[in-house]
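Good morning C.,

I know you're traveling, so I'll keep this short. The sequence:
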Amino acid sequence: MLARAKINLYLHVVGKRADGFHLLDSLIVFAETGDDIRVAKAADLSLTIDGPFGAGLETGTGNLVMRAALALRELTGTSQGAAIHLTKNLPLASGIGGGSADAAATLLALVELWQVKPERIALYKLAEKLGADVPVCLDGRPSFVGGIGEDLKPAGILPDTHVLLVNPLVETPTPAVFKARRGDFSAAARWSRAPATVCDLASYLTSRRNDLTDPAIIVAPVVADVLKAIAGTEECLLARLSGSGATCFGLYETAASAEHARRQVVAQYPEWWATSAPLAR
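The tokens, ready to paste straight into the viewer:
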């Protein structure tokens, strides 16, 4: 199961709950790249991890993948086990939903492996308890997301779009970014008519923003360099931060232009992580 990278095409902070959680309005999409989850039948639950960003990761109940598996087993009442293997290809704490996508992919893979049929509402409630981004990762479609992540509305089919993802390999923990945020709340900014072309999509997005960009730059000033590097690539239609960072993305019309942009960035900053991919539709 591919745990696709999550991208916030825009992210507005629209309020704050009494318990301290911020309320968001965001358009979330997924790239056809990410971590890999593999599951196989076993007597008990276990997790192994490899991949370029897998070193040192917890394999017990501190890992969201194991928590998802245990929660699904409890929800469905099954006693089955599974050998779960995670190949960690995405950087950590990077604003593209790596852990959340891993948890969602684990739920989907184990539902198939165990041949269980949890009620949809119950499964999404379980996902919500695991983390704010897990429900939308479980859904896997372009979605407008509200509340703290539990309010999902389909965004429809978006045009063929290709992205460049770049991370400077500096973590920007979400709590620290929100703590650095200043200023008023934004208004929700959903559109009623889907863009017809990638150029239309970029045009729609220019009147929206990611409200966490400035605080992310406070936490990790290199984010500003990443945005500048992406914006400076040929044929880039839009450069923006995803989530709380530090991953930034660029939008492009073709796979060739996105891959050319990746090579441009890597030539200038070989120490950064960068990949190009189409958006999932």
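Safe travels,
E.
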